[in-house]
Specification:
Elements lengths: L2 H17 L5 H19 L26 E8 L3 E10 L2 E10 L2 H4 L6
Family: Belongs to the hexokinase family.
Keywords: ATP-binding, Glycolysis, Kinase, Nucleotide-binding, Transferase
GO molecular function: ATP binding; D-glucose binding; fructokinase activity; glucokinase activity
Length: 114
């Protein structure tokens, strides 16, 4: 088997495998509809607790326009790191200080009571 034939065979195999993940327009619309319903339930006070998509109020009311001023604190608790950022915005310029703290393994695997 020459290289070109092997590559053609591999490409055909990849295309066949990818076809299993192709969605029809109907399937995409159904998924979108279900997701939108779950988001609406996640936002509603009376259905939030049972929704598979939890939505929390962020108090972000608008998109940034470049005129923002002040110091802002950002906290990001990820899987293995805790990131702390202080961002100072003024007249279209910014300064940022950040620190990353590793989360100890015993804290990642502890019980709720610990």
């Amino acid at each position: 088997m020459n290289l070109d034939l092997a590559l053609d065979h591999a490409a055909t195999k990849v295309i066949q495998l990818c076809k299993e993940f192709m969605l029809s327009d109907k399937q995409i619309k159904e998924i979108s509809s279900r997701f939108l319903g779950d988001v609406k339930n996640g936002l509603a006070k009376n259905t939030h607790h049972s929704s598979p998509v939890k939505c929390y109020v962020t108090y972000v009311q608008d998109l940034p326009n470049g005129k923002e001023k002040g110091k802002f604190l950002a906290l990001d608790l990820g899987g293995s790191n805790f990131r702390v950022l202080v961002v100072d915005l003024d007249e279209g310029k910014f300064e940022m200080e950040s620190k990353i703290y590793a989360i100890p393994l015993e804290k990642m695997t502890g019980t709720v009571n610990e």
